[in-house]
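Retry 2 of 3 after timeout on previous attempt. Resubmitting structure tokens to design endpoint.
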């Protein structure tokens, strides 16, 4: 009787090393932190306009649209009908696990309004506004008396 020969279930060394490299590279692709040794796969995502206080301070009250565009850049969106407001929207979201849906952590909306009337001096503006308010109240009273009694 000769010596028993056993079949080895293990692959030769070069094939085993290659398969180990494939497995390690596949698992490292799941890490979203871009560092091999980092064990924190969470990720912070920032989208939209990043608010810079110095840029905001460079826009004084009464600035024109062109001055605002030069200082703050293109707005995220504008007013729907009259284009009298610019909105700069920023959002910070955090993803705790690699394939998890990100959750909103912080959101800011910077609204810049432009005067539709174009008032240069506020000397008579308050008096005109109060007079218009009084005219609206008187008109409402007249209409109520006319229709209801």
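Retry 2 succeeded. Sequence:
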């Amino acid at each position: 009787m000769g010596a028993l020969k056993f079949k080895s279930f293990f692959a030769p060394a070069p094939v085993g090393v290659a398969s180990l490299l494939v497995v390690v590279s596949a698992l490292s692709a799941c890490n979203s932190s871009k560092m091999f040794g980092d064990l924190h796969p969470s990720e912070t995502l920032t989208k939209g306009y990043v608010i810079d206080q110095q840029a905001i301070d460079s826009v004084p009250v009464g600035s024109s649209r062109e001055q605002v565009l030069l200082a703050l850049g293109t707005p995220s969106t504008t007013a729907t009908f009259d284009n009298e407001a610019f909105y700069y929207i920023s959002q910070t979201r955090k993803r705790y696990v690699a394939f998890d849906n990100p959750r909103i952590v912080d959101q800011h909306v910077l609204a810049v309004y432009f005067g539709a009337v174009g008032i240069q001096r506020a000397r008579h503006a308050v008096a005109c506004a109060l007079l218009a308010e009084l005219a609206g109240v008187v008109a409402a009273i007249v209409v109520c008396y006319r229709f209801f009694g």
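Attempt log closed. The longest helix spans residues 125-148.
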